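Handout, section B. The chain below has 143 residues.
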Amino acid sequence: MRIAEILKAKADNTVVTISPDAGVRDLVAQLAEHNVGALIVSADGTTLDGIVSERDVVRHLHHDGTVVNNVVRAIMTEVVETCAPSDSLDELMDTMTNRRIRHVPVVDDGQLVGIISIGDAVKHKLSQLEFERDQLDSYVHQT
């Protein structure tokens, strides 16, 4: 299964972005409003400047209780692991596991086209495994 297929199957393919100069309070509000665990950091909404997650907020909060008064640029991850629409789900899951990341932006020809969460990956992997199981079961029980 390819990443492009997962993006097409998502109910809402909107990628929520936030400016690197936005406040951390705004970040927290957007995470809650959109019920997501990470936002893409982008100055123009189409290119990738970084990524920022709930985990980033919590880790910085642990060291500096005033982090909520800072800007996203101060806590975001700038070097971001990305994938392409043509990448396989298995490759992406390996990357997520090995790098211990839960959100991977999908970039095509330098443009942000989506984001895949670990939840998206697991959902589609389970569907794929259930399909294969059903096919094997059907084959075994043929008369």
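Note. Helices lie at 3-9, 24-34, 54-63, 89-99, 118-140. Compare this with the example in section A.
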